[in-house]
Amino acid sequence: MSATDLMRDFGAMLASGGVEVVDCSGVLGPDTPILQLPADFAKPTPKVEIHKISEYDEDGPFFAWNWMVLGEHSGPHFDAPHHWITGKDYEDGFTDTLDVQRLVAPVNVIDCSQQSQEDPDFLLDAKGIKEWEAEYGEIGEGEWVVMRTDWDSRVNDEARFLNADETGPHSPGPTPDAIEYLMSKKIVGWGTQCIGTDAGQAGGMGLDLSASTQIMFRGGG
What we know:
Layout: H1 3-16, E1 49-57, E2 60-69, H2 100-103, E3 107-111, H3 113-118, E4 123-124, H4 126-136, E5 144-148, H5 158-162, E6 164-165, E7 168-169, E8 173-174, H6 176-184, E9 189-191, H7 211-218
Parallel strand pairs: 3-5, 4-8, 5-9
Antiparallel strand pairs: 1-2, 6-7
Helix pairs in contact: 4-6, 6-7
């Protein structure tokens, strides 16, 4: 299904009340959890700061507005291929140069919320994705795949959201073979509800810190 067909059908369903619109954004503020990486790997991202310009006062009597300090990857966000070294040579790999027509596509939501509740280190592997396809239908080329974990229920408590101890963060995510399988199906992108697109313990999977990012951007996806 083309993006044009998808938007046409979506518009018709909206007009008829046949779909529910869900807000997938998040509130940004000083308490927004920030990805924490080893000091020898990356400089720390600053916490989100919100500074008032005016609020119907002497600094601006007719309007309320702010200026902000935040990292590109604070809160819900999208990673362009150029974000990671394996995608640095990808033509048009910046957020503002990507073909946005390609990004409008159906989404496959794989519900792993129960497993993630029982095991914060739960890993979705290729076998699990194939089992999901057997029940719900095959994931198509050019479609999105999202791993539902309900991890966003922790977002108001940074310690619970990052869930880190002396061994590092503990949060659910995909195995490298899961991402390899999805790339073989030529999906347009992958998403999760955690601090990043990988499991908290991804560094122990044989890939340096970020399995999904390295594999997906290696393919320009």
